[in-house]
Design a protein that fits this description.
alpha/beta, Rossmann fold, Cobalt-precorrin-4 Transmethylase, domain 1, 4 domains, five-stranded parallel beta sheet, 17 strands, 31% helix
Length: 419
């Protein structure tokens, strides 16, 4: 359903923000347009009633838990009794006209989806970032409004539009810490909330696996602290990282701990969360795309597949089987039929492969090694458990690399042969 363009000369819109908490709103219609309107109304915590013989599956899912009241019938006069706001979004212009006329008589503002000229209210293109709401009216052109809305949200997210008020710490209270998972490396794979947190930071404590190009775009006044932990090499002690987060937050700064992958998947994010909580520092966790799933996916390797595997296990390979500090039950993993994903396991790969074979996996079990996942130098090599050690040496595979064990590896190989 496309809205009818309206000549802006027919009237200048007066923008307001409706506070609809616990107020009755009636939506007549159950299609895609109605679904989009209901989603926004629920975000405003309105009490929504949908009047329609049928609704989309997504709308029906909202009815189940009681978020929406559904009257399973056609619109009838009187359906707007008690409403503060109404939406006419059916495919029948006559019904929409009847709803709009009832709303006019009852002095209830009504958005008519099929005819903006006949609407008493125009719905702006809306976007949200935290408590900041952006609403744009496009002078009668909805696509113009959407384009401007998206540009403003993009600017707020990447920092090119500075929300300075959001950076301030009112009343001299302590600053805060946000633990951000940056994803596997490509800056495009960080979440919107993660990028927003980085753009608003006063201090960024980053490791070498975090999206480095995001750091280059930060303003000069933002302090960037290198907290890298190189494999078998230089590293910043975790205790020092914890202390830095607390120190800067207590000084009233907005601190972002930017990691590769997800903070809680071998990222020691819980230790940092505990340190902040113990110090009384407000802390937020922003999940990231873990390389355990994201990197194989980028290489065309699913960690599960219908009819092939019903489980996958993510294992840290930073210490080999038999090491006193190892907490992995390698014997159990050897008996599994599903997928095993190994992180931080380049140097220990020969020992891990041998342990899996010893405890039940066949030497011919396929293995894929994905190095530098999500970066321009990403490459994938395929081998078997028996040939893994030699392949890593021949191909000069170095960290970071993720390797996958299981029949799912054959799926991507088969696709490559078909292309």
């Amino acid at each position: 359903m496309s809205a009818t363009p309206v000549d802006p000369a027919s009237g200048v819109v007066y923008p307001v923000g409706l506070r609809l908490l616990d107020r009755e709103v009636v939506v007549v219609g159950g299609g895609q347009v109605a679904h989009r309107r209901v989603a926004g109304l629920l975000e405003a915590r309105a009490r929504v009633t949908v009047v329609s013989p049928e609704v989309t599956p997504a709308l029906e899912a909202l009815v189940g838990p009681g978020a929406v009241t559904w009257l399973r019938r056609r619109y009838e006069p009187g359906d707007l009794d008690g409403a503060w706001y109404a939406v006419a979004a059916t495919d029948d212009p006559a019904v929409n006209e009847a709803v709009a006329e009832e709303a006019e008589r009852a002095r209830v503002f009504c958005a008519r989806a099929d005819d903006r000229a006949a609407s008493s209210v125009w719905t702006p293109a809306v976007g949200r970032q935290g408590d900041l709401v952006v609403g744009v009216h496009g002078g009668g052109d909805p696509q113009r409004a959407v384009g401007v809305r998206d540009a403003v949200l993009a600017g707020l997210t990447d920092g090119s539009i500075r929300d300075r008020a959001a950076r301030e710490v009112p009343g001299g209270r302590p600053g805060s810490v946000v633990l951000v998972g940056g994803g596997p490396g490509d800056p495009g794979l960080i979440t919107v909330r993660g990028q927003q947190a980085v753009s608003q930071a006063d201090v960024v404590v980053a490791d070498h696996l975090a999206p480095q190009s995001l750091l280059a775009s930060l303003p000069a006044e933002v302090e960037v602290i290198d907290a890298s932990k190189l494999p078998r090499g230089r590293y910043m002690a975790q205790e020092q990282i914890n202390a830095l987060l607390v120190e800067h937050a207590r000084a009233g700064r907005r601190v972002v701990r930017l990691k590769g992958g997800d903070p809680f998947v071998f990222g020691r994010g819980m230790e940092e969360l505990e340190a902040c909580v113990s110090a009384g520092v407000p802390v937020e966790v922003v999940p990231g795309v873990t390389s355990a799933i994201g990197v194989p996916g980028l290489a065309g390797i699913p960690v599960t597949h219908r009819g092939l595997t019903h489980e996958f296990v993510v294992v840290s390979g930073h210490v080999p089987p038999g090491h006193p500090q190892s907490l992995v039950d390698w014997e159990a993993l050897g008996r599994l039929r599903g997928t095993v994903v190994v992180l931080m396991g380049v140097d220990t790969a020969p020992a891990i492969a041998a342990a899996l074979v010893e405890h039940g996996r066949t030497p011919e079990t396929p293995v894929a090694v994905v190095a530098d996942g999500s970066t321009p130098t990403q490459r994938t090599v395929r081998t078997t458990l028996a040939g893994l050690a030699q392949t890593l040496a021949d191909q000069d595979i170095r960290p970071p690399a993720v390797w996958v064990v299981g029949e799912v590896v054959r799926l991507s190989a088969d696709l490559l042969q078909q292309r």
